[in-house]
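Why does residue order matter? Because the sequence determines the fold. Keep that principle in mind as you read this record.
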Amino acid sequence: MSHAAHKRLTAGRMAARLLIVLLSLALTIVLVAHRSFPERGGLGLFLDNLAPWLGLGVPLLFCWALAARGRISFLVLLLPLVAWSWIFGAAFLPANAPGPAAKFIVATQNVHEDGAHSSAQGLLATGADLISLQELGEGQAQEVAALLEETHPHQYTVGTVGVYSKYPILDEEPLDLGLGWSRAVKLRVRTDAGDVTVYAVHVASARPLEHAERDLMLSNLGRTLAADRSAKIIALGDFNATNADRHFSPVSEQLNKVPHEGWGFGMTWPNRPMPMLGIDHVLVRGLDTGSSDTLAVGDSDHRAVIATLDLASE
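Structure:
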């Protein structure tokens, strides 16, 4: 190699190392402070909900650093790696939950209007004690009610949200959460291990430039949960927000997400070709969290979430 060619190669590697350092620092800042970026133009919504996927930048930069052959590049890459592990590492690892003493299985799915019957059949096979369906289409509530009448005789439906339980349902209350029409329900379920307050919700959709209604519902749900003095609470449904979304905080500050039992984050949307966002949740307060899994059932664009809980108090 000529001297001139060697100088060009060296200069190229130096430039690559500098760029790797800058990108590593930028990635670290975005990971740590994604909720602080402005929401203008959908930037905040985009960064918040895709934040877990930013970890893919670390192996990409690592491969580039190998080609650039710079020690400083590898050292600086530790910053985004540590940041991602600190923020998302625990949620990525499989849950190590003990076997429940008072086993209670709940299932939830957004059925996407016309997939309710097939989803209900699939969720019935899981042995769930309580099933919540959202986005029930016209006539779907009656069809699902008939399908589950024998196994889940205690039923309550408001708008597009339905709850089907093996145990008696008491004190039903529709919730509009600020929209002026009900997209959620609050009810009390009497189980063999005591009463449990259940919130089944279908939060408004979120788009980059249109998520005010979703934010309002999440904020009001957070206030409702904060005021609820029930000993045991389960909230489940389509929240249209991931754990990392800044507007999900009013809810996540009140309840604990049931951890995913396998590797990964338990993404639920879109169902096909591959889930990218975990916007469907089962959350609890006042009971051992157990573990959850996702399941592709029916013809919905959402995967279902199945959670095995322990009704024994924390």
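The CA atoms of residues 255 and 285 lie 5 Å apart.
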